[in-house]
Amino acid sequence: LDLICRKLMLAPGQRLLDVGCGWGSLALHAAERYGADVVGVTLSEPQARYARARAAELGVGHRARFEVADYRELSEQRFDRIASVGMFEHVGRAQLSDYFTRIRRMLEPGGLLLNHGISRLAPHAPETDPFISRYIFPDGELLPLDEVISAVQGAGLEPRDVESLRDHYPLTLRAWVGNLRAHRSDATALVGTQRVRAWELYMLASALGFEDGEITV
Q1: Which residues neighbour 217 within 8 Å (Cβ) at sequence distance 6 or greater?
Q2: Spatial separation of the C-alpha atoms in residues 49 and 28, rounded to whole Å
Q3: How remote is the C-alpha of 21 from its chain's centroid?
Q4: Could you tell me the pTM of the whole model?
């Protein structure tokens, strides 16, 4: 979270849009630690409700606002900074140009975008994985880095920094698996044995994919 805020050179009072804010971790960090005025958007009402409650607990409800909306619904607003973390994989090749063009229009002159997502390193597209597409990420699509950079430039944005975190991500995934296994009974009570097992297998397989250099982030 701090790496993202530092890369964005975030300063007090700047308007930050968190695209696909999830449970609000980044938005809350930016509001609490950096004094930013943050708008987080998610398609999940439970996520927005949780994030609003956390903002109130932390005393930053006046600086962190959470909306149930598609980021495209905010097209008339302008922001000094935009962060998109873990949402990009759901954009897809067909919408790639539109995605970056819309974000470019929402940025104030001189603004900064940080786009964080999983990308494909293998030169050829893999066969569709029915397990992942059915149980984990329906409609997800991983694109090669050169296509992403081309779309960034095509939208009138200038790539200033590209960093691969591939070596770190297997460690993260294995830590997630460790947490899941440590709380397996709680997780099973919430979502059932099948879903717990599916995500355990998915995270372990993804760790191998990052280690083997098939995918990066």
Answers
A1: 116, 117, 118, 119, 164, 165, 166, 169, 210
A2: 13
A3: 7
A4: 0.93
